[in-house]
Amino acid sequence: QLQFVESGGGLVQPGGSLRLSCAASGFTLNNYAVTWFRQAPGKEREGVSTINWNGGLTNAANSVKDRFTISRDNAKNTVYLHMNNLKPEDTAVYYCARYPHFEPPVRAWGTPTGYDSWGQGTQVTVSS
User: In the predicted model, what is the mean pLDDT of residues 16-23?
Assistant: First the structure.
């Protein structure tokens, strides 16, 4: 059974850090690109950061580019999102999703279209 399980979310003060994990089961993660998305209440789901199959190519939304880093450990079948200098506007449910190719889409990686497996999400709340 294909499954993604996200973890690592929680409540953090502005300026703090979190590391999210996305653990895959039921398939070999190293054949796929993976993207982290987030969705805040009343807003559309948006792409945060993406990584190709071997970690050699990454991309991130402008709003997080200098603060978040995506990485992967294929031996552990896991993708990570390292989040630093968190801001209240980063508050959202964070999801990871599998793109069914080695490389993510060049321009449209941040739209939810084309991803074929999603996790259940982990809540990140940034508040003092």
Answer: 98
